[in-house]
Design a protein that fits this description.
Elements lengths: L9 H6 L20 H7 L4 H5 L2 H15 L4 E2 L6 H5 L4 E4 L3 E4 L21 H14 L5 E6 L1 H10 L7 H9 L1 H24 L4 E6 L7 H17 L8 E5 L6 H6 L4 E4 L5 H8 L3 E5 L8 H15 L5 E5 L9 H14 L6
Parallel strand pairs: 1-4, 4-5, 5-6, 6-7, 7-8, 8-9
Antiparallel strand pairs: 2-3
The protein binds coproporphyrinogen III.
The site of coproporphyrinogen III has 23 residues, from strand 3.
């Protein structure tokens, strides 16, 4: 049993369903475009170049912690980073998202998904070490990866999509090839996440952002098993895991069956109902759009979330999806303030 003080931080305590001094809060996509200090540092070019520079990536990770006093840092990285690192040929186009030069289409493409080595991601683990050193004993660092379905959707579609037509065709027309793809993605994802913990991350989040595009049956057959294999392969690390997706109201019961410590709830489900469906610690679920109309409106919306979260321990306050690019940082600062002062879930 280790006695690292960070284990007693409100964020990690809430992940374990324990009592807290204040309800912890952080924001998905807190490190990035909405911050002027990020835009000043970042310049133009692919985000993958910024991520490849540990000086820049560590500084961007720390910026929101300094500005907002959030209860956790999230590594400045991206869900496509390990696939870029093994040379799959993926880039992130500003304003658009991940684009793949030669998308995954046939069994020959499996060879392009080789195992991830420590050397491939030395820049990422270097960043993790610098951040953990700078954060000290009080603030944990969250590492992350895409969940296999969401990652595979980019590798197969080749570009952001609203329809998911290519990957849905693949899963139904060639289920064996789809399964083989998922197996490769699982292995790479597990290596990526374990490396982040080995270098100091204290929690891990799996972003299954596009799981909500699936029917419940499709989720159970084509997404959940691979997600669960990732989570199972992390269990011996003894760090909390958070499973998150968007538009997943219909899937929450199934997602709750996965062995993550915490379930992320987007804004489509009221948090009292979300807590019932999860039956484990939850993270969420302020609609990011409600932060676009000024501090008073956002604080009012945050209070609604806090009320629905109730008093039972195990709530990590967050948005229901990432910070929208045009969000005023002062609005998020006001949200942090109200959560810290008025949140009651598990407060001792
Ligand atoms: O602050 C944080 O949360 C940490 C950084 C982070 C980024 N991407 C940096 C980033 C995290 C957690 C992600 C995860 C991610 N990346 C997801 C899952 C979360 C979600 O939002 O659903 C997904 C689907 C991606 C893929 C991706 N990368 C998209 C869709 C985009 C947006 C493209 C755009 O510009 O609108 C990116 C680019 C990206 N990743 C940016 C940032 C800060 C913005 C672009 C930039 O600064 O160049």
């Amino acid at each position: 049993m280790t006695t690292r003080p960070v284990l007693d931080s409100p964020f990690l305590r809430a992940c374990r369903g324990e009592s807290v001094d204040h309800v912890p809060v952080w924001f998905m996509r807190q490190a990035g475009r909405s911050l002027p200090e990020y835009r000043a540092l970042r310049g133009t070019g692919s985000i993958l170049e910024a991520i490849a520079d540990p000086d820049v990536a560590a500084e961007v990770t720390l910026q929101p912690v300094r500005r907002y006093g959030v209860d956790a840092a999230i590594l400045f990285s991206d869900i496509v980073v390990p696939f870029h690192a093994i040379g799959f040929g993926v880039d992130v186009v500003p304003g658009r998202g991940p684009v793949v030069a030669n998308p995954f289409r046939t069994s020959a493409d499996l060879e392009r998904l080789r195992d991830l080595t420590d050397a491939d991601i030395a820049h990422v683990t270097d960043t993790v070490e610098r951040v953990v050193q700078a954060l000290g004993d009080t603030t944990p660092l969250i590492g992350f990866a895409g969940a296999p379905f969401t990652v595979a959707s980019y590798l197969v579609e080749g570009a952001p999509t609203r329809e998911f037509g290519v990957i849905k065709t693949l899963m139904h027309a060639e289920p064996d090839l789809y399964d083989a793809l998922m197996n490769r993605v699982v292995d790479i994802t597990v290596s990526f996440l374990r490396a982040q913990v080995a270098h100091g991350a204290s929690a891990l989040q799996l972003f299954d952002s596009w799981a909500g595009s699936l029917t419940r049956r499709e989720y159970q057959r084509f997404a959940q098993p691979a997600t669960e294999r990732v989570l199972t392969a992390l269990q011996d690390l003894d760090v909390p895991t958070i499973l998150f997706g968007v538009g997943t109201g219909e899937l929450l019961g199934d997602m709750a069956q996965c062995s993550s410590s915490v379930l992320g709830i987007d804004w489509h489900v009221d948090l009292d109902e979300g807590r019932r469906r999860a039956n484990k610690p939850v993270q969420g679920n302020l609609d990011p759009a409600r932060c676009l109309g000024g501090a008073d409106l956002a604080v009012g919306a945050a209070r609604e979330v806090l009320t629905r979260a109730g008093r039972e321990a195990g709530h990590i306050f967050n948005l229901g999806h990432g910070v929208l690019p045009h969000t005023d940082p002062d609005v998020l600062a006001a949200v942090v303030d109200v959560v810290h002062h008025e949140g009651k879930a598990g407060v001792r």
